[in-house]
Amino acid sequence: DAPARSSHHSGADSIISIMSSFTKEDQALQLKDEGNKALREGRWGDALMSYSNGLKLLNELAIDNDPLEAVTSSAAEVSLGRPALTSGARKSPVGIAIRSNMAMVYMKTKMEFEAIDMCTQILDDDPGNAKIIARRGKSNHTLATGKNKHLTVAERKVYAKYAEDDYLLCLDILSRKGELDRASSKMKKEVEEDLHAIRTTDESWYTRVFEKMSGKHDGKAMQSGLLEYLLQRLTPLGEHKRIPMSSMKEEMLALRLLASLEIKVSKTPIQDDQVEGETEYVDGQEKGREILNSILTVVAQAPFCLYPATGSSQRRPPITIHMLAFFLRTCLTDKFLDKIGLKEFCAEHTSHIISEREAYAIATHGYAEVEDAHNPNHGHGKSFAQSSQGPCMPCTFRLTREGKRDLAAGLQQSCHFGVIEWQAWCLNRLIEGIDDGRLSVVDAILEKDSQGCNAMMHAANDQSSGYAALTIRMLVQAVSFSTSGDPQAKEKAVRRVLNTADDAHFSPPMAAIALRNLNAMEGFLQVGARYWDKKINGKLPRQAKLQHDVTIEMIKKLKNEQLNNAIQRLQTNSEDLIGCSYCGVATDELQLCSGCGLARYCSRKCQTKSWKKHKYVCKAKAKVNLTQTDLASSINAPRGLEKGGCLGC
Predict the structure, then answer these.
(1) Residue 85: in which H helix or E strand, if any?
(2) Is the pTM of this model over 0.70?
(3) Long-range contacts of 290-295 (CB under 8 A, 24+ apart)
(4) Which of 124, 38, 48 is nearest to 80 (CA)?
């Protein structure tokens, strides 16, 4: 009986041990799946916790199977809180898969050194694992071209060499596998692209970006918008037929000028002939600020006064790439640009930092990774009408490359919400004749939406942004600039876009009156709009006239002097009379302003009341002198691409 009883108990213990083993392996797999789910959802801490617990179970399983198996661990694993692993746990397929995913978590959380360490340990147990080699190469690549401020230029070059070696080894392993499955084919393509990117990083790139942009030689630089773009090492899409480089010259100039201001120290070396072997460094930032102030000063005096005059001593316009390009196109002559030396300055002070190809790619957000992140799958716009409200300029350029043509709808939305940057982009493209000029500036502005409102009417309805007047002036300036022919043709085109009424017999100025939108009314007055233009709309129907008169009488009862004066001036314009620039009364005794020679006043009292705002547009006072803190950053660098985050919204 005793031997039989002993054999029976021994068999039961074996069965229990086997069941326990299966249970632990199943639990480890379950924890792996939980970690994978957390990884996909971006819960990095939860993912690492699940993976660590899974490795502990595999460790216990290996020890149960072989109690004498030695535990092999590294100091790094202990210091990072990772479980010490047995040889069996390290080499098991589940253990390798879990540690591979842990390396991915480290990569996602910008812990490249830990990712490299983990990948190296896995490769000690599985030397032919192409996926792990690719991940180690990617981590080395990130250290070489990423934003780690503690790495010198020499160290970055070493990591670039490590990345190249890993990419080549990975491709060699994949090539020996024969026919690849879908996942392996995708990995091979990604590795080939990364290898091309690291190889095209020429020897001078590190010095060019990290030393010359900082003015130092320790590899540290200001994290400007331009530098953020260059550090990403994104894949340029190249020139596109709808937005060729020839049509983006002003944008590229604007980008270079603004980039010179974003860089803390932009220095160009000049050899000193007096002292052999010595180099003098000239700071280009101050000169760039000088040039921009010169441009904005002229813009402040340009036709239709594009620069917003808000009555504030702090005159800060929306200085962005596309807005500045609009100024360069429509307000400044080539003679003036040559005088201030804009092109020469940009070539001298930014060409060592950014090439023409890079300037074009940044100005158009023309990178494969950016376009991939800015797609409807990640919640981004499907039309210009959507992207214009943000505005999301990367989406705008993606839609342009995709062939979208609802420019008029986008212009209407941007005018309604006062999105100056998108308006400038749209007007720039229309002036440059996108799609061979099939849609003119005038046609785009006059195109009506489902409610019968055109872009100018939407500008009159903008009551929240504070840019309604600037929008109106920009639309008029674009029409005047793009209309060829004699002055009469320009005047007719301007009158059409300013005064074309909707189906309810409301002109844009009348809509501004009905809404008591003083900002829009001021904009219409500055460009000579009429309350009702008979040459454009014909005679105002009797019923509509009665409705307008009732509306105006109700507004006048509010006894708001500014509103009443603006209404009077619009009515005076409608009768083709010249009235006081403040109260609007038409009289033969108007006196010209001695400062600008444009404003007219019926009395000293009106001139005094008008001076509070007029002084900012009067020729004698239209001066701009922005400091560095006044300049708006206009180069939106890629952020959150791995999550599909928006670069422009």
Answers:
(1) strand 85-86
(2) no
(3) 291/257, 291/340, 291/341, 291/342, 291/345, 292/257, 292/258, 292/261, 292/319, 292/626, 292/631, 293/624, 293/625, 293/626, 294/340, 295/324, 295/327, 295/328, 295/332, 295/340, 295/342
(4) 48
Beta bridge partners of 85: 72
pLDDT in tens, 231-281: 667 788 889 999 999 999 999 999 888 888 766 544 444 444 444 444 444
Please return the burial class of 241, using the count of CB atoms within 10 Å of its CB with bins 0-12, 13-18 and 19+: exposed
Cα separation values, 642 from 212, 369, 370, 646, Å? 29, 9, 10, 11
Question: What pLDDT is attached to residue 63?
Answer: 72
Residues of the chain with pLDDT under 50: 1-19, 21, 70-82, 212-224, 265-281, 309-317, 620, 628-649
CA dihedral 217, 220, 224, 229 (to 10 degrees): 90
Please choose, from the candidates 649, 627, 631, 630, the residue with its C-alpha nearest in 3D space to the C-alpha of residue 640. Answer: 649
- State how beta strands 71-72 and 85-86 pair: antiparallel
The DSSP call for residue 217 is S
pLDDT at 460 (0 to 100): 93
Residue the block writes with tokens 């060592």: 352
3-state secondary structure of 597: coil
Q: What is the rounded CA–CA span in Å between residue 409 and residue 454?
A: 9
H or E, element range at 71 = strand 71-72
Q: Residue 243 carries which DSSP code?
A: B
CA dihedral in degrees (264, 248, 641, 190; nearest 10)? Answer: -110
pLDDT digits (tens, 9 = 90+) for 311-341: 433 434 456 789 889 989 988 888 889 999 9
| 445: nearest Cα among 432, 437, 433, 454 | 454
Q: Identify the sign of the CA torsion 212, 218, 222, 228.
A: positive
Residue 391: cis peptide before it, omega within 30 degrees of 0: yes
User: Which tokens hold the place of 476?
Assistant: 């008029």
